[in-house]
């Protein structure tokens, strides 16, 4: 009997031991890989701008018929400040480069000047307006907390229109001239993301318009007259609306990857 109990204990021991064997360890699956979707960087945009500008004129000279005949210069020449409205269409090539075509209308600015001869001094007044067309390129210098500083340059032309030039104290008057001239611009500023498509733009622009004819000959006065160009300092603000592509405002979109099933080893 004792021998039977010993044999039974010897057989049952391995059976119960087998029932308590720990399961094999489960190998953890690697974390899911989330890959960024390809982003359409380039995109078309439109823009609208407003500015306040102040122009400085170069020298102004005019032809005289004597005595003695020749050429005289204005003693003084000043353009008052003015406002402009503009718009344009552009394309953002990548995160750091964009280009656009812009058109700006400069509202009339008052002109005050003076001329003199051996005996008299004359006051000269007029008004000047312009239509400025530029092809521009910009380098965006990176986006920091939604703000993107940039620099740029533009080249194009300006249609300058002078009203009649006259002395309000006399009958002297000369018809104003209208003509196209070469122009270029340099700019710097920063943009700020208002939404994922609307961007606020503020900056400074320096523009130069080449000289040209200012007024024509009139029988009651001398002429024609020529201004020798103008340098303009502009403080600008506006909005850009980008139709497509990544404008640097929205967070990048990533593809959803489902979690893989756990992998068990035998």
Automatic annotation (TrEMBL):
UniProtKB keywords: Signal
Boundaries of every Outer membrane protein beta-barrel domain copy: 40-243
Signal peptide (residue range): 1-17
Any Pfam family: OMP_b-brl
InterPro entries noted in UniProt: Beta-barrel_OMP (IPR027385), OMP/PagP_B-barrel (IPR011250)
Protein name: Porin opacity type
Organism, as annotated: Mesorhizobium amorphae CCNWGS0123
């Amino acid at each position: 009997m004792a021998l039977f109990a010993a044999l039974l204990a010897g057989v049952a021991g391995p059976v119960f031991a087998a029932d308590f064997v720990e399961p094999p360890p489960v190998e953890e699956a690697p974390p899911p890989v989330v890959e960024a979707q390809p982003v359409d960087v380039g995109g078309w945009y439109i823009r609208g701008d407003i500015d306040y500008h102040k122009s400085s004129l170069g020298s102004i000279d005019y032809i005289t018929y004597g005595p003695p005949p020749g050429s005289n210069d204005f003693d003084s020449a000043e353009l008052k400040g003015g406002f402009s409205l503009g718009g344009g269409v552009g394309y953002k090539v990548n995160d750091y480069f964009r280009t656009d075509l812009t058109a700006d209308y400069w509202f009339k600015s008052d002109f005050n000047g003076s001329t003199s001869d051996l005996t008299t001094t004359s006051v000269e007044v007029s008004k000047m307006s312009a239509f400025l067309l530029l092809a521009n390129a910009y380098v965006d210098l990176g986006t920091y907390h939604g703000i993107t500083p940039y620099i740029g340059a533009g080249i194009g032309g300006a249609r300058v229109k002078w009203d009649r030039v006259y002395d309000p104290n006399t009958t002297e008057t000369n018809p104003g001239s209208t003509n196209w001239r070469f122009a270029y611009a340099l700019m710097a500023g920063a943009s700020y993301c208002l939404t994922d498509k609307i961007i606020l733009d503020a900056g400074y622009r320096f523009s130069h318009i080449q000289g040209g004819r200012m007024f024509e000959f009139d029988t009651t006065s001398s002429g024609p007259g020529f201004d020798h160009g103008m340098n303009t300092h502009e403080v600008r603000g506006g909005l850009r609306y980008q139709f497509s592509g990544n404008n640097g405002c929205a967070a990048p979109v990533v593809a959803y990857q489902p979690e893989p099933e756990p992998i068990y080893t035998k």
